[in-house]
Amino acid sequence: MKKTLLTLAAVSAASILAAADKAPIELDYPAPFLSGTPVPIVLPNLESPDAPQPTVLAPAGVSNIAFGKEVTSSDDFPIIGELELVTDGDKESEEGYFVELAQGPQWVQIDLESTATIYGLGLWHFHTQKRAYVDVVVQLSDDESFESGVTTVFNNDHDNSLGFGAGRDMAYVETNKGKLIGAKETKARYVRLYSDGNTSNEMNHYVEVEVFGEY
């Protein structure tokens, strides 16, 4: 019993020390900019607009390793913009700063070029109009085809429309603050993000995706 208590104490101390070496990830927000007529947002699993960003810890100095990395997609011919916009570091939301993919379930995928420990992600779909994106699923893997070794770190597909299982995460209203997602220190090379339209129209959009990790 005494040995067990000592072991638990050692594990607890190690956890405290590990947490002490980390700091919350802080996203850099673009300036707010809203235009157009708002459309009512009606979803059964919608998060309160006042909900704060989650606290996601990472070692001090961890940077966005997705910057400038190659982006591929289920839609080979975006309707607006180029896939490079997803990782170009620019988070403005007017036309010329985002990529628009066709209606229906679509994904974008970032190749980090080698396996990294991923602590968190920053995601901006679109923020010149308040809206919520549907069936947002974020997955990580070392398999480019995502057929094996897949870790799901976010899933607001409440009714399992995409077939990955019913998600417990909440849909959220898009703003210039984007969405911070914890990645559970998953080791992966590829990041894939799904969506299936939004509450304003059936199209899929991405302004920027940041991946905070280290090789």
TrEMBL record:
The keyword Coiled coil does not apply. Residues 1-19 form the signal peptide. It comes from Pelagicoccus enzymogenes. Residues 55-214 form the F5/8 type C domain. This is Discoidin domain-containing protein. The lineage of its organism: Bacteria, Pseudomonadati, Verrucomicrobiota, Opitutia, Puniceicoccales. PROSITE patterns: FA58C_3. Keywords: Signal. It comes from the Bacteria. Gene3D superfamilies: Galactose-binding domain-like.
